[in-house]
Fold these 2 entries.
Entry 1:
Amino acid sequence: MIETLRRWKERGIHVWLLACALVSIATTAGIIWVLASESVKFFVHVSPFEFYFGTRWAPLMEPRHFGVIPLIGGTFLVAAGALIVSLPVGLASAIYLSEYASPRLRNLLKPILEILAGIPTVVYGYFAVTFITPHVLRPLFPNVEIFNAASAAIVVGIMIIPTISSLCDDAFRAVPRSLREAGYALSATKLEVSTRIVLPAAMSGVVAAVLLGLARAVGETMAVTLAAGMTPNLTLNPFVSVQTLTAYMVQVSQGDTPAGTIEYQTIFAVGMTLFLITLAINLVAQRVLARFREVYE
Amino acid sequence: MPLVQEPAIPASLKPFRPLPDRRTASGGGETAAEPAIVTENLSIRYGHFTAVSNVSMAIPPRQVTAIIGPSGCGKSTLLRSFNRMNDFTPNLSVSGRVLYRGRDVYDPQTDPVELRRTIGMVFQKPNPFPKSIFRNVAWGAAINGFTGSLDELVEQSLRRAALWDEVKDKLHSSALALSGGQQQRLCIARAIALQPDVLLMDEPCSALDPIATTRIEDLIDNLKKHYTVVLVTHNMQQAARVSDRTAFMYMGELVEYGKTDDIFTHPSNPRTQDYITGRFG
Amino acid sequence: MSVQATQATFVPRLGARRAIGSAFHLFCVLMLLLAVAALGILLVRVVMDGWAWLSMQFLTSFPSILNPESGGIKHALHGTIWLIVLTGVVSVPLGIGAAVYLQEYASSNRLTRFIQLNIANLAGVPSIVYGILGLAVFVRSLALGRSVIAGALTMSLLILPVIIIASKEALAAVPNSIRLAAYALGATRWQVVRHHVLPAAAPGIMTGIILALSRAIGEAAPLIMLGALNYVPFVPTGLTSPFSALPIQIFSWTGLPQPEFHHLAAAAIIVLLAVLLTMNAVAIGIRMYQQKDRL
């Protein structure tokens, strides 16, 4: 009798734990369902062709245009700028930490870099608006607008330095010591061993790091909304205001958008675009990382 | 003109070489040339552990010198001190001297990078770069500003390493696709492409199967025409087959050092006798 | 044609190579210092801007549009506390449960791999997308409105992957010998997990939870999608109350042009960073305690 009770209890616990794990699948399903179903309603009113290939974005006021390209352009302008800032710093820091620094120095510096990743993104937005634009960009480029892509790119770049440096550091450390020894035994200097043996051997890990940093920059919301502004603008000029996919979604939420209106539906169409872009980048990054791990583990 | 290959007679079938008339002083080689490497009272410590204790020996040029001994006796540490690969070990302290062609290797003025161009090394586990065969062999030479034809250098090095025939049609394919024995010969080719004076080999066959081992032992015999070879091995028979002089180390000390034939047929130290007859190690 | 063994055929240019090597070393150090300097400047600026505006009044009063100097973060502070507690209540059991399932119960089949893949992907989804999910499901479909419970549920979904991954690692780090010993004494799987594995993994799990919650404290994007930006000058009184949160208030103030509001934002940032610092210090403390125990 007790045995049966205990068995039922065990089974119940097993089922409950499985249910917990299935929440994650429910979440993914929920995201996809929500985005898709509302986007479908949106695409009843606006043709997908106009949405994905149109170059004017003005959904909230007459005359309306629903071309999402300026938002995508803004997103990637900021993301590319962020990579320009974070890649040299992150990669060089990773090379230093893994090839040059003593273990003590490494244990001191790595956590400090991680702090950069732990600071809430609103704080970076504040930093961009109150320091980067007026005190860094204005003195150098007097024509820069109050809201500009460069300011957003700089702070997002700072934000993703730890992502890049930490993953690159892991990649370098996965390269076996014997390869470095072979290099030194061939009369190579430390620079040559680091950049011409270790770096090429770790290259797919580095690529994965860059992709993950890119995905993070694309998905960033608070800092770019505060720093880059709300002006959809298809441009390569970093000194003017642009609007990213994420900033648009914030803009719409600041107003009152009743369900069923086209404005409400744009949230989901734009959200789906963002979701697909980051999903694609993350999937490629995971594939690259898996291939890298195959070689070294 | 590329080197002509000798017919490959396995070393085990070769008779003992007739002993040339060599000086038996701790230095001399056949032609009264100065020794390639000399150690004077060399001691190496990791922290509190003494790996090498007061070793004095002279390595003659253009011969194969083997260092044998049980695991942990310090032979690899000793070998790595010759080209300062020991520098990468933390908490290392070196006392005594290592002289290469009369120059103190551990002198602060000595540039280890420069030193390693003339003293090359082959490691226990083959460690080819994840690049093509060609780039592996050419890498060191290219880094060091080789002015001649890399194609000819790669061919010559691969021939000397007895690998050319097997890879000449796939020089640009990945080195990692080769077998273990081939990879090790590739590493030898890579090391000799720098045209070193001395070649240090740290148990080069211990990760290989017997057939691959035999091929490498054969090629060591050819290598000594061009390079001074110092070979660390835990395989006594290998030392007996391949080397001209043998040093026996035990717990960091140099127990006995002399011509290979003498060491193996009538060693003067009882510990050497015990080791050779398999009483320990 | 043939290349004999002469050193003259190499031009090693060691001096130049060493010089470039030193320059590169210097470059790497500079880049690292640049990153650290960016952090330092950010923190210094925030403290300089906001320190003078910190006060008990700041912590205990509501914001005032008419009179910025007397504004405060009372609503945001209460909102954040409500939010974090509720998020913790929802996400911690779910996350630990999922991790226990994946690590201790699941066999290595397609479903398990699918779940793990899912979790890895969810960890990479931008936080604003979670906000959209929350808007459609919790606010609209479940008609919870723009309430603190809707916010907490949304945040729970956001940090669930983080908790699961960290807990899984903590569970995996428990030596198998502990499990085998308990099984050998006739324990059921749940008994093994509850009495042996979970206690052993507890420090790692707690660290993971603290870090996940500290991430949730700093997130504003999902809450904005839920409509938390609308001005809410009172503290939450129940699960269905409207709410605000510290990062939301910081966002609002930073977006206004007048410099007084920037000072208020800086002061709020100091409070937020202080909370985060405390939480991370606790997490590090737990980790150090755990390591000491092991030795």
Entry 2:
Amino acid sequence: MQYGMIIDLERCVGCHACTIACKAEWEVPVEYGRNWVRRLGPSLVQGEMASTYYPGLCNHCTEPPCVEECPADYEEMTFTDPKTGETVTLEVAATWKDPFDGTVQIDKARCLGCGACADVCPYSARYVNPDLVDDMSEDGKADKCTLCKPRVDAGSLPACVQTCITNARIFGDLDDPDSEVAQYLNKGAAGIEPVDGELGPNIKYYGRKKDVDLLLGTSTPELVDVGPIRRRAMLAALGSGAKKSLRNVGLLGLAGALLASTQTKGESNDE
Amino acid sequence: MAFNLTRRRFLQSASLAAASIPLSKVVSAETGFVQSPLEPKGSLKEETVTGGICEMCFWRCQLVGKKRDGRLIKLEGNPKSIDNGTSICARGNAGIKLLYDPDRLKYPLKNVGERGKPVWKRISWEEALQECSTRLKGVVDKYGPQGIAVFPHGSTAKYPMHFFERTVGTHNVSEASFFQCRGIRDTAYWATIGKAPGENVDMPNAKAIMLLGSHIGENVHVSHVKSFIKGLQNGSKLIVVDPRYSAAAAKSDIWVKIKPGTDTAFLLAIMNYLVKNEKYDVDFIDEWADGFDEFAEGIADWSFEKAAKECNVPAEQIKAVADMLADNAPNVSIHPGRHVSWYGNDFQRQRSLACLTGLLGAYYVKGGWVPGIKPKVGKTSWAKHDHGDEHNLNYNEDEELRHPYTPPGTPTELIRDAALTGKPYPIKGCVIWGQNPIQTIPGQEKMKDVLRQMDFVMCVDVMPTDATMWADILLPEASYLERYDMVKTGTQWDFSEKHQQFITARMPLVEPMFERRDNVYITNAIAKGMGHAEEIPVKTVEEMVEKNLAVAGLSLAQLKKEDGIHIRDGKDPYGVPEDFEVLLYNEDIEDAGFPGIPTYVPVDPPPAGYARLLYGRVPVHTFNRTQNNAWLNFAMPDNPVWINDETAEKLGLQDGDTVGLINSEGFKSRTTTTVKVTPGIRKDSVYMAHGYGSANPLLSVGVNAGVDDQSLITKIAVDPETGAHGMRNNFVKLIKDGKVLDIPA
């Protein structure tokens, strides 16, 4: 199973309903977006006038580079197949690719806010949301499109799909050959793969040739050089770990922290 | 992969977190700090409130609200809607940012500074209403009811407009939606087919669609865009006639890059070809049209070559358009347009569109012009009285109509000229309700002079605007999400589906905050103060809505029970009505002194060194009304000026450069914007989105965002038949780094 989305550029009129609905649904700060719409052209594409849009969002890649770069600690997480109820337990950092629905998700509580995942994403689909701060990160938390996982798990559609005024956004399981999205794959819908990349983006674009050419010609990203990002993430993890520990543990020291962590629930309930 | 794992292990062992305490779960022993929820909850499980009708624009999609702790957190399309369904556009989605905009008007305000440079003092409603009534009554007592001018816009403005027009008795009412927008279309079709056309083209079922200037996609009305896209998905051909490669042109089969102002020549050549080659619908014309012979003779000169020269497009392309229309007739949507007040020759163009639709037999047929059959509801308002035409500015000394095909109300320019000259009588009281005449009406300085000479100006609005700066008293109105208001009716938008009708009424999704009040409350109080208490038609806005619903056998309680929308079986809208007639030649128009056969009237070309200023819409804004909306501003924060790429190269302009503009009358833009360099616009024109560049400093987001195109529209054209404005006859140069750049020919 791999959830994904088709963007049908024949239908899209670039109206931005999707970006604003997302802002409302997920309380995205004004100056950020979990998705975006860019107008492309009018330009000449092989001598022909063309203009289209780049409605973008997290590609929930088959090989997501962001997941690799997360410096947070591994923790065990149990995932459930929404169809069969089957479970599997994996060790994951603060961001992972769901083994069942194929979406890429973030545990904001464990996110260090270092921004490595955002920096490494060639699509710039992630950002560090400065509104989300806790004792782990004063800088905010990595944030991005979840393909509206909470809505989808509850049987609803992603907010952007629900509001799309021309049904240009179609959500579904790309692995299910009977799904509408899979039909689009048969018609040639394709993801925006970075230059020399093999990420397997799962947002697929469909449209007339000149429009798809314009989209790919203007919006195909380069892979990001991970070297500097890794070094910074490493430092962030080190610094963050030390800083946060000191602040949280305070004078009690490590043993106190351990004690506090085991008593957290009871204490806060008493209040 | 291996590297990553190694790295992560390294990090784990290196950080203090390696002691396997997940830090986020630690409560600080020192501060007792408990983290706030990091995951937004989403709207899905929140309380749903129904009954909303959007007014971020005037298409009026049906809404539901999602509410948390008494606060609206999200708006969605009402799933019960057969109009917009669960879809709403960017503006609709951003409605909550208007609702909770901290810059909104909150209390009645009195201007203790001067008009245009206001200093606001908060006053009580009692004081505000008393002042409005006393001052307006003073104007009526001194100058007569004709001394009051009203500039209304929006659903709440109807009730006060009718009060001043019908009860007080002034003709001097000028709606922007008519005189600066669609009035010409309505009266030109009325003079041809006896009906205003709306945008009633059956695009989902068309085999060919022709848009002349309409930029659907940038111009977003949800069910209309749905119709358009459905038509294209069903295989319709698309012809877009536009000097610019618009959002719609980008989906076209034929883009006609027409020279601005020459559309009528283009249409006449097509019609002449259809007539000469008997490619028109002979049976339809025989049965339903009048004046065919005069018409055919009158347009006989219009060869493709003649039009090609005039329109600056290839003759073969005009022929290709004509053939595409003829080949697909009668299932052809000739779009009547919406904002059509362009060049001051617009009545004749709109008449041409109506005639072309007739030649193609494209009335009341699948894919043609087909109005849906809507249910009837009431229209409760102030009782009509005949106030005579003595003070109707549209009549000249010989008691002839100056503009015989004027839409309802009085042409704006006649009102402004009377106000400025005092002839034939002074106009000294002004009511601005939901309209922004500073950024709607051409000749901004003239409008300011009109307002300066008033004895009293009152404004009612939801937000501060450039017009509210000119008020003496400024009243805060409840927004569309906080009030009862209009009743909306309609049908399903795809006539190939089951015929259905709907009736819905705007109901508040939340209570108004601060001291915002509704239109009926405000108008009635002023009416009482002006001595018209006896004539008040309804005590509350709810009462008005109930009366209007009762005509359809409905009530607010019933609508609430039905999730905000009543749906009933509809009627088949196809089939020409018995009394239908297409007046290809209209003798009455000729008798009134204008061409009775559609006639091309050329407009002035740009002077050397200038380009024509064209303007239009962007999908995230309703002109100026939405400029202060933080989400919409972020989506499109300014209005880049489109310039042809070859022209830009000659001028040394790069995409994204910052520029100002100056027009041929020396008016300079107050602010700057960016340049969009593209081959998708003619060399003789530049284009920008309308409504940007607000000057009101109380708009903390929208002030000075982009350039106010209206400030550059100073050459005033008036369409002679209708008295409506033409706003695309202004010419500009760009200014970069203080240097004025001549636009090469």
